[in-house]
Amino acid sequence: MTMLLVAFFTLIGTAKAQEPIFSPADGSDDHWYQIINARDGGRYVTVIADGYLKGVEESAVSDNNTFKLVGTSSNFQIFCKADPTQPIGAPNQNGGSKMSVGGGDTNTFQYSASSNAGHFVLATTGGQCLDNYGDKISFWGNFPNDDTNRQYRFKEVGDIENPTMLGVEYLLMKGDIIAIESPANSVVKYTLDGTDPKTSATAIQSTSNTVDITLPTTGDEVTVKAISFDPNTGQTSGLETRTYTFFEMTEAGEYLIKFGTGSNYVTSVTDDAVMTNQVLNPCNVQTQTFKIIKSTTKEKQGVYNLMSDGKNVYYAGGYKVGTTALADLKIKKHNTAGYLEVIRVESNKGMNPNGGVAVGARIEEYNMNDGGNKLNFIDKTTLTIPTCVDITVNDGTNGTGYIVVAGRPQTTTAEQGGEVTIHAVPEVGYKFVDWKDASNNSYGYSYYCTYC
C-alpha cells in the first residue's frame, strides 16, 4: 500500500525562510528590514527612547524599527536607520546583557534556520542567542536555541508597501492559483525561478495592482518572489518571498483516508450521520472514497473541499456527507513526519477520530497538531480491493462478500487452491457462522462483520 506523503521540505519540518540581502559596508546599496520576533504573534524589534532594543507590537515603519545587515550570515553587524553609524551591540555576553545602539564590543552576529516557518535564530558570533523574553532584547541561551523568543523573520522595507501574498503555513495543490496584490497605483513584478524580480530578465510584470499566478503542475515546491513597482516613479518595495510546498493529491484522483498507523478508513455509513472509522469494505468502497477539489467560494486562498460518492463532506457535530454546504479545509504537514493534517477553516481544528483509530470511532475534530489528527490520503489505485460476489450462508440469508484464498483476497471468484474463507456483509455486527456457498459447500466456522 502506497501512502501519499508530504513533499520534502528543504529545511526539515519547515518552509524556507526569506534570507535578508546584506548591504555593502560603504552604504552604496543598502537593504533595510524590519526584524520581527515570533513572540505573541509578532513583535517588531525597535530602538526605544533610552537607546535599548525592545520587541513591540507597533508595526508602522519608522527609522527606529528599520535595520540593515552588513557582512555574511555567519558574521554580520546590525545597524539601525535612526543612527546608521553605530552598530547594535552590548557590553558583554553574560546572560541578560541588554542590546542597544553602540552598546559595546559584542556586536557581530550569526543566524541559522528555525523550525518556525520563515524564521531564523539570531545569535552573537560568540554563541549567545538574541532573546525577546524580558522587557528588553538581551543575550540568553546557547546558539542555536530554537525557542519562540529567539525566532526572527526579516521584512524588507522599500519606497512603497510590499505586495501581499498567501502565507506558507499550509500546503497547496499543484496547479492551483494564488493572488498577489500591491498598493494602488503600482503593479506587481514577480518570478517563479528564484531570481530577484527587481533585476531579473525573467521577471513578469502585471498590468494592474493584482495578479493571479497559476502554480506549477510538477515538482515538490515553488518559490515565488515579488515586489511592488510604481512604473511612473520607478519606486520599488521590499522583496516578498514565499516557498510553497505541494501535497500530492490531485482533483482527478480518488483517495481513502486513514488515520495514524491504524488499518481502518474514514467511512460514510449513512447520509447526514457522522462518519466513522471502519475497515476496508470492498462491497461498498465508494463510501470510503473521497475526492479533493479546489474551493469555489474561497478561491486563491489555498482552501479545499472533500466529496464522497458525489456528496458534499460537511461538518455539523462531526464530519458528514450530504447536500449541506461543503466544509472549507486546509491541508498542512502534521508535526509527526510523514503525515498530513486536515484543518477546518471555520474552527481552525484538525480532523480527528474521537477516541482513537479503532473501528467505530466518530470522525470529529480536535486542537490543531494533536497526535490523533495525523492522517494520510491513500491513492485508491494502489490498493488491492477484491471483487464482491453473491453468497448464501447456512441460515439461508443472502448477502455479498469476497473470497479469501490462503489468506489473500481474490479479485476474481476463481478458486486457486488452499483454504478458502468467504467474508460476507449481510448485516451490521458480528456473528459466528458456518459459511456455505450457493452449492451448500461448507467452508468452516469463522467470525464475520459488516465491514470485514
Please tell me about this protein's structure.
The chain has 452 residues and is mainly β. The protein folds into four domains: 13-157, Trefoil (Acidic Fibroblast Growth Factor, subunit A) (Trefoil); 172-247, Sandwich (Immunoglobulin-like), CATH 2.60.40.10; 255-382, Trefoil (Acidic Fibroblast Growth Factor, subunit A) (Trefoil), CATH 2.80.10.50; 389-449, no CATH class. The protein has strands spanning 3-4, 32-37, 43-47, 53-56, 67-72, 75-80, 83-89, 100-101, 109-113, 120-124, 128-131, 138-142, 151-157, 172-173, 177-181, 187-191, 204-205, 210-214, 221-229, 240-247, 255-259, 265-267, 276-278, 291-294, 304-308, 311-315, 319-322, 329-333, 340-344, 349-353, 363-367, 375-379, 389-392, 398-405, 408-409, 420-424, 430-436, 442-449. The strands form eleven sheets. Strands 4-3-2-13-10-9 form a six-stranded antiparallel sheet, with no helix packed on it. The chain is elongated. Mean pLDDT is 82; it is low at 1-16, 390-400, 402-438 and 442-452.
Features:
452 residues, mainly beta, Trefoil (Acidic Fibroblast Growth Factor, subunit A), 4 domains, six-stranded antiparallel beta sheet, five-stranded mixed beta sheet, disordered N terminus, disordered C terminus
Structural class: mainly beta
The helix content is: under 10%
Tally of individual helices: 0
**Mean of the pLDDT scores?**
82
Largest beta sheet: strand ordering = 4-3-2-13-10-9
Distance between the first and last residues' Cα: 18 Å
CATH architecture of the largest domain: Trefoil
